[in-house]
Design brief:
The chain is mainly α. The chain is built from three helices and no strands. 0% of the residues are buried.
Length: 107
């Protein structure tokens, strides 16, 4: 019986040496909780920034669509645009004289 009690006491001593006290556990848990709270705050700030960026992107896209529709439905000749106009309202024939266009590409 003494041998059994001795082995049991040795095991309990090892267990006690390896165990973490309640105070140590509380301290570690509070540190982890604080880190998680900070991380949550950072995620919330990033989500807000992402939301604002997406709203801004949507507004830019809507403005581009409105501008494209306005230009499409503008009267011919308005703001230098007419059917057949080239880049930035200039006629394609004025971009390069025919003498500079190779014969195989001329119409």
């Amino acid at each position: 019986m003494d041998a059994l009690e001795k082995r049991l006491m040795d095991r309990l001593d090892k267990l006690e040496a390896n165990s973490v006290s309640a105070e140590e556990f509380k301290t570690k848990f509070e540190a982890i909780e604080s880190a998680m709270t900070d991380q949550g705050d950072r995620v919330d700030r990033m989500q807000t920034r992402l939301d604002l960026a997406m709203v801004s992107l949507g507004k830019v896209q809507q403005e581009q669509i409105a501008t494209a529709r306005t230009l499409k439905h503008a009267a011919p000749g308005a703001a230098g645009m007419a059917s057949g106009d080239g880049i930035i309202g200039s006629r394609p024939s004025t971009l390069a004289p025919e003498s500079q266009i190779p014969p195989e590409f001329q119409l």
